[in-house]
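Why do we care about 3D structure at all? Because function follows from shape, and shape follows, mostly, from sequence. That is the central idea of this module. The next example makes it concrete: a single protein chain, its amino acid sequence, and then its structure expressed as tokens.
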Amino acid sequence: KSYPKEVRYGKDDNFTNINKSYKLGISLFKDGCDVVYHTGDGNGEGLFAAAKEITDKGNNKAWAIGDDRDQAIEFPEYAPYILTSAVKRVDNVAYDAVEDVMNNEFKGGKHTILGLKEDGVGLAQSSYKNTPGDVLDLVDKYADLVKDKKITVPQDRNGVLNFKAPQIEENSK
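And the structure:
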């Protein structure tokens, strides 16, 4: 299977203005984007409303990706338009910290970065409802490459826009 590979970038400089995010979402969907991911925390509701409106008007199926937590659960009225959510696994972070305290191994004042390898981020459980299994399998394969340091995740806008993901064979894992 082939999936679209073009990345477009839009920015509304806010974390709380739902209307700005709605307008940006409408603009991106009308410009041909099939999937839009927001990183604005509280403004995601605007993007979800845009995905619903575009889809309900019959233009095409518009998908949104939530951020920080499972936003299909947070916004059940928009769940049919939320492909997945990129979640911060705060539960795992808290568990590890409590475990360190219990074992007298907690070292306060240090900065820790938790990524895929440390199970600090991942996909929401609701991903399995709207995301096809072959896509989730592909995500797992790419995640394994990131964990094994065979892919370096871009750290800025230019890196994302210029990123070329390696091809993965259908039967590899």
